[in-house]
Amino acid sequence: MISQPFAMDLIPLLSGERRTGTYYGVYFSIAGLGVLIGNTATGLFVDLARATALPAFPGSFRS
């Protein structure tokens, strides 16, 4: 969310008004890959916390 406004302004400058759509596509593909990796890691950590009976987040999983 922090990089989005800067990237939206910077991509047209870097593309030089040629193949701007390609630059946007590459940017959003890399961003999507980052989201995929981040969500997968978060899910693994939550599952690991549940398996070891340690809370994944403070105050969670109280019985």
TrEMBL record:
<protein>
    <recommendedName>
        <fullName>MFS transporter</fullName>
    </recommendedName>
</protein>
<keyword id="KW-1133">Transmembrane helix</keyword>
<keyword id="KW-0472">Membrane</keyword>
<keyword id="KW-0812">Transmembrane</keyword>
<feature type="transmembrane region" description="Helical">
    <location>
        <begin position="24"/>
        <end position="46"/>
    </location>
</feature>
